[in-house]
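Re: beginner question about structure tokens

> Can someone show what the tokenized structure looks like for a real chain? I only ever see the sequence side.

Sure, here's an example I had lying around. Input first:
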Amino acid sequence: MRLEASLRTTPTSEVALTAAELERAGAGGVCDSENSRDPLLTMAMAAVTTERIGLATAVTIAFPRSPMVVAYGARMLHDQTGAGSGSVWARR
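And the corresponding structure tokens:
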């Protein structure tokens, strides 16, 4: 069974540490949604301190963003994680 944890209520200053702790505890993934912050940025912070855990954006609202902004964010995560395309950045 794969367990995924939401970082939605985690303070921004604690995202990287919390993601690393969840990975050590055996969680299969972490996610964030666009309720009060940019989930692409949150996943980038989580990617810095993790190696294996899956990273996902539960909700990323595209219509108020330029397509290039979304593309740059997705490419940044791809480069940082070495993952393939898609909404979940799983590690290779």
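Each token stands for a local structural state, so reading them left to right follows the chain. Helices lie at 15-24, 39-49, 67-81.
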